[in-house]
């Protein structure tokens, strides 16, 4: 079975570098420097979330500096439009958000919709997602990805929520297209302090443990 999903180029690029750093911080002192620190550690996808105050200027700055950055925790069409206008490479939602999917399709930007159950996965496919984010991944474990690929063989799944250096390789081995690295790589206090050397160190450790290209 194959799925006629939009944005095959996005998925191919994600498969080649299958780690997305998901940043949730009270503040970001320098978004381009943060993205550069992650890239130095082998993580070239960065997701800045709307849970960070005033995230749009940070998105705009990172995009202007040439980084591959997306917007996460996108809950509304208005947020999606703000992110797209900032130039993001992709959008991510924590759950099924049809209005966000509509904006993504109108603007030609890949969207990764969040889902958990098989029914929600099917709905995400109906909404034209580029890949499906399974959240919270840690609560169900890597084996859940193998189970989902039974009825959905070849479906591009992204593991998010509780993924760390100790379990990332297992999620990838069980069929995840990519994994999301959160506080294991970008702790909020470290990001807010602008400790970019520490971010690079953590990114290197994560990519090495997961077996991802660095």
UniProtKB/TrEMBL annotation:
> What is the organism field in this record?
Catenulispora subtropica
Instruction: Tell whether Zinc-finger is among the UniProt keywords.
Output: no
Q: Which domain of life is it from?
A: Bacteria
UniProt entry keywords in alphabetical sequence: Carbohydrate metabolism, Lyase
Question: How the protein assembles, per its UniProt entry?
Answer: Homotrimer.
Q: Which Pfam families match?
A: Aldolase
The protein's name is Bifunctional 4-hydroxy-2-oxoglutarate aldolase/2-dehydro-3-deoxy-phosphogluconate aldolase
List the PANTHER family. Answer: 2-DEHYDRO-3-DEOXY-6-PHOSPHOGALACTONATE ALDOLASE-RELATED, 2-KETO-3-DEOXY-6-PHOSPHOGLUCONATE ALDOLASE
Q: Its annotated pathway?
A: Carbohydrate acid metabolism
Q: Which family does it belong to?
A: Belongs to the KHG/KDPG aldolase family.
């Amino acid at each position: 079975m194959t799925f006629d999903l939009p944005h095959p180029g996005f998925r191919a690029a994600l498969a080649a570098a299958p780690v997305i750093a998901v940043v949730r911080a009270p503040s970001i002192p320098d978004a381009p420097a943060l993205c550069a620190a992650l890239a130095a550690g082998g993580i070239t996808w960065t997701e800045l979330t709307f849970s960070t105050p005033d995230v749009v200027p940070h998105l705009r700055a990172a995009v202007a500096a040439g980084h591959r950055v997306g917007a996460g925790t996108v809950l509304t069409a208005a947020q999606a439009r703000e992110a797209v206008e900032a130039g993001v490479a992709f959008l991510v939602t924590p759950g099924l958000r049809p209005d966000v999917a509509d904006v993504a399709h109108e603007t030609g930007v890949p969207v990764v919709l969040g889902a958990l159950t098989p029914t929600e996965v099917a709905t995400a496919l109906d909404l034209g997602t580029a890949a499906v984010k399974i959240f919270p991944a840690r609560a169900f474990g890597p084996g859940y990805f193998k189970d989902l690929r039974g009825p959905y063989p070849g479906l591009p799944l992204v593991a998010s929520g509780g993924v760390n250096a100790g379990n990332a390789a297992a999620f990838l081995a069980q069929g995840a297209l990519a994994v999301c690295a959160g506080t294991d790589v970008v702790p909020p206090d470290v990001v807010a302090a602008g400790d970019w050397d520490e971010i690079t160190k953590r990114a290197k450790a994560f990519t090495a443990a997961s077996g991802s290209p660095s």
